[in-house]
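Database export, one record per block. Field names are fixed; values are copied verbatim from the stored entry.
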Amino acid sequence: MIQKLIIIVVIGVFAFGSNIYAETINVVGEIFPPMTNEDGTGQQFEIAKAVYGTLGYKVKCKTYPYKRARYYVEIEKADVMVGMLKTDSEKLIFAQFPHDADNIIAIYPKNKNIRWNGISTLKNKKLTWARGLGFDSLFDFDHQGSEINTRRQAFQKLLLGRDDFMIDAYSGFLLKEVDSLRNRFETRQIGFILIYCCFSNTKRGKRLKKIWDKEFLEIIETGKAESIYKKWKLMREYRILTEYLDKAGKNKRASDGSFYLYK
């Protein structure tokens, strides 16, 4: 009888453990190499696997257009979105800390001979940015803002004089799609961008956020995150991120948004 009870308990514990460790977390992001590649690899996806994988979760990663990836988290078709800009949303909650940071730049053709005088140079100009990034909220001065589908399209419009400046993260300026055009443009730093992951505003989403907030700091402090950034040749971004986290201090708190402009 005792032997049977032991067997039942062991089987029960094993089944319970298997249930936990078999749980799958679906992570999504837009295609943004080398952070998020079309095949489900990339630095941001590896960060997600480092956060959850060591706890026994299975992590599946897929890429979609930015707005669709966000929508999938909102309707709970996906659990986590990486590479997200922090916005007001009743359907989403955000990680306490950014998992990436980058410079915001203004891009313009070299042959326009623009005399740069800081951010005021952008006043009353035609500005464009990648669809879904929401840079329009950045500027408190008059301007004409528009969205484009690809960065290559934006560069071509700049060369044709249809827009004056493109606003982007510096990593966007380095994407392969604009390799053949990049040397025809100047860039100016105008601020920085903090990039977060988000979760659905549900019981499950809140649980996954709690795990992320704890484990993300752990992989930063142990150096595991640094090795991932180094593997993907993103040490510039890693230095920007850790500088931000260091300035926040040990009692780090969430920032109010994703965009900060230089004054």
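Remark 1: Helices lie at 2-21, 43-53, 66-74, 151-159, 170-173, 203-221, 224-231, 235-248.
Remark 2: The chain has two domains: 21-100+195-257, 102-192.
End of record.
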